[in-house]
Design a protein that fits this description.
Rossmann fold, globular, about 260 residues
């Protein structure tokens, strides 16, 4: 059985990532990295959309720390949304945190219905990023904010064989582009770019720490959750990830932009 035995995020995958990244998170960095993406932004009393919300970690953080009035999270994985709804109940935030299971482009929101859109490590799964940004522009109110963290690449050429091997090992759809490409697409789709940040250096150290933790203090917990064969397989994937981050081809980054009023 694969870690992705039930959709991209089945029970084993969720348990594994919860152990490594914490409850509510399906991507690295936790609340500190969310704070990096949202640095300097004001979400007080704003209605926010989280695209690719995972199990809700960012949604809850935007409500609890940033004072967002309402945050709607969307994600295509049923078990992920079920987990997020359960966490909302646990945190007594169901009145402010809403979660919808939907595929990209399937669920339509009204024009200008959000004051901010957030996403973390989700855009890489969507191939048509220009159309995605157009749709986001439409649902944002005038002067609405877009804040995104994503897995990116050093350029927009054909991925190296090493990168292709890593992507194949993950078993996920990954359509990564460069930070420069995002800058160009944002300008083409009606946004003013506020900031662009390369996070490769930070992520390199993060991946090294994660591998050390999984091999060391977390190993028994991970084995108990998903089995020794799966745990060792996950470590092999992490090692492939380290290789492409170390060579600089895999370059996580973040950006902020504001919708230009028309």
């Amino acid at each position: 059985m694969s870690l992705t035995d039930e959709g991209h995020y089945g029970p084993k995958q969720l348990n594994m990532l919860k152990t490594v990244w914490g409850e509510g998170f399906l991507s690295p960095g936790g609340t500190k990295e969310i704070d990096q993406i949202l640095k300097g932004l004001n979400l007080k009393n704003k209605k926010v959309l989280d695209i690719g919300c995972g199990t809700g970690g960012a949604v809850f953080h935007m409500i609890e720390k940033y004072g967002a009035k309402e945050v709607i999270g969307i994600d295509p994985e049923p078990l992920v949304i079920e987990t997020a709804n359960n966490l909302a109940l646990k945190k007594n935030l169901s009145d402010k945190a809403k979660f919808i299971c939907t595929k990209p482009g399937e669920y339509k929101f009204e024009d200008k219905s959000f004051e901010a859109v957030f996403s973390k490590e989700a855009f890489l799964h969507i191939i048509d990023k220009k159309n995605l940004l157009k749709e986001i522009n439409e649902i944002l109110a005038d002067n609405g904010i877009l804040a995104v963290g994503d897995w990116m690449r050093n350029d927009d050429n054909e991925p190296s064989e090493q990168m292709k091997e890593y992507i194949a090992a993950e078993g996920l759809d990954m359509f990564m582009c460069s930070l420069e490409k995002y800058e160009s697409l944002l300008k083409e789709t009606g946004f003013e770019v506020l900031s662009l940040n390369d996070r490769n250096k930070w992520y390199l150290e993060k991946v090294k720490t994660e591998i050390s933790d999984i091999r060391g203090p977390l190993y028994d917990d991970v084995v108990n959750l998903i089995g020794k064969e799966e745990a060792d397989g996950a470590l092999e994937i992490w090692e492939k990830l380290l290789g492409v981050v170390e060579k600089g081809e895999h370059r996580p980054g973040n950006f902020q932009a504001v919708k230009i009023s028309t």
